[in-house]
Amino acid sequence: MCGLAGIARREPSGVAVETLDRMAATLRHRGPDGFGRFAGARVGLAHVRLSIIDLAGGAQPLGNEDGQVLVVYNGEIYNYVELRADLERRGHRFRTQSDTEVLVHAYEEWGAGAVLLERLNGQFAFAIYDRRTETVLLARDRFGVRPLFYSEQNGDLLFASEIKALFASGEVPAVPDLQGLDEVFTFWAARPPRTVFQGVRSLEPGCYAVWRDGRLRVQRYYALQYAEAAAESPEDAGRLEDLLHSVVGLRLRADVPVGGYLSGGLDSSVTCTLAAAMSPHQLRTFSVAFEDRRLDEREFQLLVARELKSQHAVQAIGPADVARVFPEVVRHTETPLVRTAPAPLFLLSRLTRQHGIKVVLTGEGSDELFLGYDLFKETAVRLFCLRQPGSRVRPRLLDRLYPYLDARGRRGEFWHRFFLEAGPPGDPLFSHLPRVRLTAHIKEFYSADVRAALTGTDPLDELRASLPPEFPAWSPLNRAAYLEIVTLLSPYLLSSQGDRMSLAHGVEGRFPFLDHRLFEFAARLPTRSKLRGLREKDILRRWARDVVPPAVVERPKQPYRAPDIAAFFTPELVWYARELLDEPSLVRTGLFDPRSVAGLLRRCRAGSAVGYRENQAFVAVLSTQLWHHQFMEESARAPSGVVPAPDPALAERAVSS
Amino acid sequence: MDEQTVLARTRGYVQEAFLYMRPGLALRDHDRLFEKGVIDSMGVLELIGFLETEFGVAVRDDEISEENLGSLDGIARYVVSRRGNGSRP
Fold it and tell me: Which of A139, A214, A321, B51 is the most buried (most CB within 10 A)?
């Protein structure tokens, strides 16, 4: 895994190597194993490398035979072996064993567009500079596993794996985008292409962009589709088995050992079990464990680790740990957060790296494909209730949702009304309205200026307007799954809890469930093969029964959570929060009302802020202040002492070839 | 304890717990807390916690209703009647 950055100039006025070096320096954590750059008259490219495939030969920027096509690339193309064989049959000659070189030749063969990208199975973001046509192709994988941001400045294009590299160029100012922030406090993340910074765009998952003569054209090459079958076919179980082996097998392709994250749930148990069976090494597994027993899943993690005979390591998390790393976490996520959940994953990747592992498989994506989240059950139950609005019995099913929110399981009429009055089934966003409503409590803390600036904007209306034409024809649960992928999985889970946390310590996450073939298989299954009654991931459970310990297979879905307010009061409010949440800081930032925040802090200090709303509001306000402080006030300067030493030989070679 | 006392203390709690970020909102005794967006289903659970500690009433699931917990005056009536009846199993 790696980081990339680059600049394309409308006029051939040159790209300074110092600028490229500054950009690359901010990405060093993504690629501690190597550095390379190319500085031309019109285009400059920089790359930091985490060596995983072809450790000796995969340095970048990498060119074709005559150096006319240069690539910087972050990610993996898992089917590079097959693509290479195909390209060799078509007459291409290879110098290295790397997947990067396959990309160069694939570009030569198939050009800058969907014909190329549809052939790639992987998680990637890359930039290809074609010196013959003076074009730059930017592309990103189907689900947005790997990030790619860009900014257009007077016809120049700047792009990078992380936004901080754009700021480090000195050519992109860091200014908050209030609509982007409003999306965070609606969906948990800004919705691509929007980000939380003005003028900075995120290339949408499944899209590519071609830059030429100062103009950028973005196009989609992959769209999520749900062509649901009427019934499960007898072959589906076998097909699932074949696919699971294939998606995990492909993701074990590496010239370094591949480990696994074990959450204690079904999905990571499946990926680790398959990996243990197929891997030539004893599998190394890694887990987060919480001192707070309500959040802890170590019992199930150890059960699976023992079963797999894996070499298992545990990152224990106490409340003080979250507060200690939270500022650094926000520097990596580059966005305000509504949960502290990324912080334990930040510590987990550090532990993983300390154990010498730089590639891990995780179970991410399964809940979206096989309807694992409570949100899907909630949608099904709300629809069931609304078909018989007078029923007193049906709403009781709602009492079975989110059992972890109240220890005594109390619910009552208001609980039912919250779900049943959240919105009509005809609303395209029906499934997500309760969560949106809950998240939007944060907006009560907005300053008057922010409220005024956001007047007339509505993130929900924008999302409705963005939905694909096929959307209304999909079943309600497939609509919910689609919304979950585009609003939460791609911009939040794969980013703030995924890419950013693992690569903070040079660890690459791989996501077998997000192989597009498995997605397409799951999308064609009838809904009841996934959510049968209120039993989630039915077809996956049926398959896993013979493979994964029964206690894990039969276990209800446990959401991954981390301590929020409690993490920052141990018992005094952590020092940086005291500074950032005081009135002068809040006034300077201008985003939240100081009196409201003072009220929240009063409640936190008194130990009364124990509910979901206030936990979320506290994390949102604190992370926003940290984010503002680090990006708008300190600017995105490179951490001291990590400016990479350029590899002159490599830069030389790329320039002269 | 009379209804006025319960009402005053509950109002203080609701102001402190749910309205500190909405200082401009004037809440009347009969205003519907749920409709006005003062309290949602999560907030109700917090409110119940307050009633149990502050007034010593154990709120049963079937009592979590609009009638009992939907407004400040409703809460006051409910708490007084429950305290008057002693604590039921």
Answer: A139
Q: Is the peptide bond before A193 cis (omega within 30 degrees of 0)?
A: yes
Q: Would you state the pLDDT for residue A648?
A: 42
**Residues of chain A whose pLDDT is less than 70?**
1, 58, 405-410, 635-657
User: Cβ neighbours of residue A295 under 8 Å, at least 6 residues apart?
Assistant: A561, A562, A563
Q: Residue A556, preceding bond cis, omega within 30 degrees?
A: no
Question: Residue A573 CB: number of other CB atoms within 10 A?
Answer: 18
A257 and A213 part of one domain: no
Query: Is B23 within 8 Å of A595 when comparing Cβ atoms?
Result: yes
Q: How many helices (H) and strands (E) does chain A have?
A: 29, 17
Chain B hits for A446, Cβ within 8 Å = none
Range of the domain at B69: 3-84
Residue B48 belongs to a domain: yes
CA dist., res. A101 & res. A103, Å (int): 5
Active-site pick, A2, A207, A272, A385: A2
Q: Do B64 and A413 touch (CB under 8 A)?
A: yes
On whether ipTM exceeds 0.85, the answer is no
**A414, A593, A610 ranked by CB distance to B44: nearest:** A414
Residue A604 catalytic?
A: no
Give A 407-446 residues with CB within 8 A of chain B: 410-415, 417-419, 437-438, 444-445
Question: Which string of DSSP letters, residue by residue, matches A378-445?
Answer: HHHHHHHHHTSTT-SSGGGGGGGS-GGG-TT----HHHHHHHHTS--TTSTTGGGHHHHHHHGGGGGG
Does residue A200 sit in the same domain as residue A271? no
Rg of chain B, C-alpha, whole Å:
12
Q: Is residue A643 part of a domain?
A: no
For the CA atoms of chain A, what is the radius of gyration? 24
The whole-angstrom distance between B24's CA and the closest CA on chain A is 12
Under an 8 A CB cutoff, do B20 and A596 touch?
A: yes
- Cβ <8 Å between B48 and A603: no
- As a whole number of angstroms, the distance between CA A481 and CA A487 comes to 10
CB–CB of B69 and A444 under 8 A?
no
* 3-state percent breakdown (helix, strand, coil) of chain A, nearest 5: 45, 15, 40
Whole-number Å distance between alpha carbons of A103 and A64: 10
Whether residue B87 is predicted with pLDDT greater than 80 in this model: the reply is no
Helix axes A612-627, A178-187, angle to 10 degrees: 150
CA distances from A509 to A300, A351, A501, A503, B71 (A): 21, 14, 9, 8, 50
List the 30-69 stretch of B: residues with Cβ below 8 A of A.
Answer: 34, 39-46, 48-49, 59, 61-66, 69
In Å, how far is B4's CA from the nearest CA of chain A? 24
Q: Which amino acid, residue A375?
A: L
How many folded domains does chain A comprise?
2
Q: pTM for the whole thing?
A: 0.93
**pLDDT tens-place string over residues A87-126:** 999 999 998 888 889 999 999 999 999 999 999 999 999 9
CB A235 within 8 A of CB A513: no
pLDDT score, position A75: 92
Cβ pairs A/B, distance under 8 A: 71
A599 Cβ contact partners less than 8 Å away, ≥ 6 residues apart: B16, B20, B21
Q: Which of B35, B40, B51 to mutate to test the interface with A (most CBs of A within 10 A)?
A: B40
Note the Cα A408 to chain centre separation in Å.
34
- Residues A444, B65: C-beta atoms closer than 8 Å: no
Say yes or no for a CB contact (<8 Å) between A412 and B44.
yes
Beta strand ranges found along A98-203 (DSSP E): 122-130, 135-140, 149-153, 156-160, 201-202
